[in-house]
Each structure stands twice: as C-alpha cells, then as structure tokens.
Design goal:
The chain has 294 residues and is mostly helical. The chain has one domain (3-270): CDP-alcohol phosphotransferase transmembrane (TM) domain (Four Helix Bundle (Hemerythrin (Met), subunit A)), CATH 1.20.120.1760. It has eleven helices and two strands. The protein starts with a helix and ends in a 26-residue tail after the last helix.
C-alpha cells in the first residue's frame, strides 16, 4: 500500500481514535465528580463521530476496518461513558435515594440496560443493511449517537439550571449566556434520568423508522437543519448553550416517534433481520481419533 493511500485511510480512524480518548477522559472525569467536563467530553465525542464519517467520505477512505473502529468507539463513548456519568452523578445526590439500597440497584440496572442496548444496536448495525431495497434510506431504531447526545445534552441543561450545579460549583464551569436567565429547575428532575435511559435503550434496540438527516426531501428544511447543526458544532466545542443544543435532537426524536407511527410509508417498511436466514449446519465434535497430538 502506498504512503498516500495509507494516510488517506488513516485520517478518519485518527478522528475516531480521538473520540475514544474523549470517552475515556469522560469516564475519568465522572469518577472524579467533574461532571461538567465529563458531559462536554461526551458531546465532543458525538461531534467527532460526525466528523470521522465526513472525513472518510471526502477522502474516499471508507473501509470495513473503519466500521469496526467506529463501533468500538461508539460502545465506549455512547454506551459506557453516559452510563458511568449518570451513575456517578445520581449516586452523589442523597435526597434522590439512589445511592443505597433498592434505589442504587435501580440506578445500576438502568445504566446496565442502556449500555447493553447500545451494544446490541451497534452489533445489529454491523451485520445488516439498514437500507431496505426500494424504500427510502433510513435507520431502523434510534442511532446510538442521537440517543447518547440527547441524553447528555439534557444532563448538561440540568447541571446548569439545578441547585446541584450551583452547590458543587459545576454550574460555574458552564460558560456563556443562559437562555433561561435565572430560572432554576427542581432537584427532582434528576430522578427522571434512569427512566430516560430505559426509554432511550428501548429506542436504540427497537425497529423504529428514523429518517436520516441527509434525506429530508425539502431544500429549505435541509438548509435549516444544516444551519442548526453547524451552530450546534460551534456551541458544543465552545461548551456553551446546552439548552439551545438540546432543541434539535429532541425535536428529531419526537418527529421520528410520531412519523414512525402515523406514516403509512413507515408502517409498510420491513426492517432487515440480523439473524441468520438459515440454521447453520451442526458441527460434529471431533473424536479422539480425529484430533492430532501437539
């Protein structure tokens, strides 16, 4: 392989690798109770997940190796890291009752379900084609990037607008203007995160038809979405305005949920199976006379 070709294929995988480092740093930050840093690091990983695909397409450097790298990165960044972040945060709020006893097991269970659904989604994505022949190109089930990005960006909104962020000093780390002014959310909103993780896990593992951003059918709508996506990139890397950033993924999830239920086109789509089409032939165990000595 020529040096130029090797560098071309290396570029998107370097972006993916950097995203994995962000995921690891997020886990470390969460365990050290640097919750704002941990949340924004996951957001950065979400943004890099978009960048590596763009780089691969621009350089014509898509590869099976890159697909596997991306899946491993997604498992860390959007499966493990958000679960650790939520567990570490809610376990530090005694008034929620999730730090001990049955509450702790409930919290741990919701985090485990989130992680397992994430891995299931990624494994399924790797073995099937999500573009049914003759139909519009779309996802079946909510992508892990969208699910984790929505969860974590709302986490950052809670951190900025609840007493937890003020009492721990984390709110001071949320730079930039506050679109909601001096408004404050009650501490009880944190108690909804385990339920949100269970809902997110179900959506990731489901066959819910989810339109792709690049196939909106309207030029004006496409421009609007891309402009907001670009603004989201700027806000994300600048670590500002999580309340603004929460609008687009939340709206997209809501639209997908409604469209998947009311659209006759969506209801007629059949998701491809990730299971083998035929039962594999049984393999006879080797007898002693069939084995070779070392």
């Amino acid at each position: 392989m020529s040096l130029n070709r090797m560098l071309r294929y290396l570029a998107p995988n370097l972006v993916t690798s950097l995203g994995m480092v962000f995921g690891l740093l997020s886990i470390v930050a969460a365990l050290e109770q640097r919750f704002a840093d941990a949340g924004w690091l996951i957001v950065w990983a979400v943004l890099l997940d978009r960048v590596d695909g763009l780089v691969a397409r621009l350089l014509r450097a898509t590869s099976s190796f890159g697909v596997q790298m991306d899946s491993f990165a997604d498992a860390i960044n959007f499966g493990v890291a958000p679960a650790v972040l939520v567990y570490a945060t809610l376990g530090s709020i005694p008034e929620l009752g999730l730090h001990t006893g049955a509450g702790r097991w409930l919290l741990l269970g919701s985090c485990a379900v989130w992680m397992l659904a994430n891995v299931f989604r990624l494994a399924k994505f790797n073995v099937i084609s999500e573009d049914p022949g003759g139909g519009p190109k779309m996802f079946f089930g909510v992508p892990t990037t969208l699910a984790a990005g929505t969860l974590v960006i709302w986490y950052l909104v809670f951190l900025q607008y609840t007493p937890l962020g003020v009492s721990t000093g984390q709110a001071e780390l949320m730079r930039g203007p506050r679109l909601l002014g001096d408004a404050m959310l009650p501490m009880s909103v944190w108690g909804y995160l385990p339920a949100a993780m269970l809902v997110g896990a179900f959506l990731m593992a489901s066959n819910l038809p989810t339109p792709k951003l690049g196939r909106l059918g309207s030029k004006a709508l496409t421009v609007f979405v891309l402009a907001n996506a670009a603004a989201g990139f700027v806000c994300g890397f600048a670590r500002v305005l999580p309340e603004y950033m929460a609008l687009m993924p939340s709206t997209w999830l809501l639209v997908s949920l409604v469209w998947g239920q009311v659209s006759s086109q969506a209801r007629t789509l059949q998701p491809p199976s990730f299971l083998p089409a035929e039962e594999p032939e049984p393999v006879e165990p080797a007898g002693e006379d069939q084995t070779s000595s070392a």
